[in-house]
Amino acid sequence: MRRVLVSTCLFAAACMAQVKGESPDGGGEDAGSCARIRCGDGRECRDGRCIPIEGSDSGAPGLDAGETDAANPDRCADPARECEARQAEDCVSACGTAGTRSCSAQCTWGECVAEEEECNGADDDCDGDADEDFECVQREVAACETDCGSEGTRTCDPRCSLGECVAPAEVCNGLDDDCDGVVDDGFPLTITSSFAADSDEWRLNGNAYRNAASGWIVLTDAVDGQTGSLILARPLLANAFVASFSVWIGGGDGADGLVFGVFDVDGPEALGGGGGGMGAFGLAGYGVELDTYENPDVDPNANHVSLYDTGATDELATAADVPPLRCSCWLPVRVELDLGRFIVTVDGEQVLDAAVPDFEPYEAYLGFTAATGGANDVHAIDDVTITFDDQGCR
Hints:
8-stranded antiparallel sheet
């Protein structure tokens, strides 16, 4: 009886040789493991041999571990394989982005290969830079210089293109940060004075004084030949504001009146001519007069409101039909300036809307003046509020 030697089957022919008791390499060895054998179609591995499956006469050579079947190249012989040959799948790259990996001919996974760079703010290709193939990193914000010289910002858009340089918000720094042509605008300023106590915010000139007992400012008493003024201690840009205040006129025989002025003068000590000049005439600037004395050939009556160029003493507009000014009561008045346009309201009634020709904003001292002449009245001021939209940085 012949001894049958069985070795690891590398090919179907080798298995057939073993069945005949022959060694494919000319020697004898123990039976091979079926874990390393893959027989062709129509055969199966038993005890290290490729045996025809009952009812089948077809076959294909077996395969060693790690080799592929030529008839079915996407499969590997080793049952412990990681993957199928030529297989690919999604993976996470070393830098955390999406990638792909492929199965090698030895049925093991290759490295995860990062994708090409895209415009998404991420380092897709794992080279340490995001969006480096584009103009900028998506949605990244960078500093830039604006047209007016301030430091602005520009944002990288969704297509990785740089946007325009956007000016910053205005800052109180003496510069035009937001490039609107105005320095330090957009900071509101409200001045409120009830005169309950002495204040350095205002200057009293001439016959004017604070009535400590009553808590208001008296510009003139009912005494002939007095002139007085109340002027803000600091200048402000006369471009746009709203001033509201209360006036008291009466107690005498009616003269001469009171002016709210926007004076283009050198300081808060401003005081103009007496009598019909109402303490304002002769001071450069503009004024709204509450006139209670009729000067012949000049005034329409003894109860009117006018807009004057106080320096040139030119009347620019007049309202003759107005509420009584000498009521010996506190009368609310509102004056709005908007780039040369004066709107005046007395006791809730708008009485004047007039514009100054060729008006240019200027540094002005705001305040009140009054005077008496050969006739007189008490002229008093209280509860002053002046609001600017953009003078808060001064």
